Structures are given as structure tokens and as C-alpha cells.
């Protein structure tokens, strides 16, 4: 802690805490909601929604159908603490579930990855739907609701 006081480090911790708010913090006045199913071996076990407002602020809402999840054999869901069994999990940042299934804006080949699925800009929700949310670390898929 050379050169800085304890107060300085506590202030940095507070800034980091505000950067990633706790679950269940929604953006105000969401007017656009897009929802897709979370599937495991062809069975719907929940939904993932992107909620946006007119100021282009967004959050992700993940809802798990706990009965369906149990019947599916309790598959792990990155970024979700399944021991809490909340009705929904809300984040205003890309938690592990979203990050594993989308392209990071800093990825050096982002344009190639987006063009491969027919996107001109990094629309994370649409990217998940077009790629079915496939990732190496999970057997969960994302399927567009019809």
C-alpha cells in the first residue's frame, strides 16, 4: 500500500462495487424487451431477456424454471448461483452466462465473428440467438422464442 492510504483503497473498492451492481437491479423505464429460451438437451429450462430503455441502458434478466431444471438433471448455469433459486437474476453487465455466449467488444476479430452470422454491429442478444449460445464450457443452448 505504498503511497496510498487505506481510505484510497476502500474508495476504489466502492467504485468497483458500483461498477457491477448486485443482482436484481433493473434499468429504469425499460421499453424494449427481447426474450429467448434457455434449453438443455432440447428442454426449455428458463429464459434470458435483454431489457433496454430509451437512453440505451440495458440489463439482462435470467429466469430459471426450477422444476424443469431439476428434471433436466440440474445442469450448471454459468453466472447463476443455483443454490439461491431466485425467481430471476438481473444484471446491468454481462455476467458469465452472457459473456460466454457473445463476442467481447475488445475481441481482435470481432468484425469477422459478427459478419459470419450476418451482423453489422455487436448486438449481443441477436448474436446469442443466431449462434444458439453455443460455448465450449456448457451444453446449454439459446433458442429464439417464436
Quick synopsis:
By secondary structure, this protein is an alpha+beta fold.
Can you give a write-up of this model?
The chain is an alpha+beta fold and 146 residues long. It has one domain (22-144). The protein is 28% helix and 23% strand. The chain has five helices and five strands; from the N terminus they run αβββαβαααβ. It has helices at 6-19, 66-71, 96-101, 110-116, 124-131, and strands at residues 32-40, 43-52, 58-64, 89-91, 140-144. It has a five-stranded antiparallel sheet with strand order 4-3-2-1-5. The longest helix is centred in the N-terminal third of the chain and has 14 residues, at 6-19. It is globular and about 40 Å long. The protein starts with 5 loop residues before the first helix and ends with a strand. Mean pLDDT is 86; it is low at 12-21.
Count of discrete structural domains: 1
Structural category is alpha+beta
The total beta strand count reads: 5
Largest sheet: 5 strands, antiparallel
Share of residues in helices: 25-40%
As a percent range, the share of strand residues is 15-25%
Q: For the terminal residues, how far apart are their CA atoms?
A: 55 Å
Helix-strand blueprint:
Layout: H1 6-19, E1 32-40, E2 43-52, E3 58-64, H2 66-71, E4 89-91, H3 96-101, H4 110-116, H5 124-131, E5 140-144
Antiparallel strand pairs: 1-2, 1-5, 2-3, 3-4
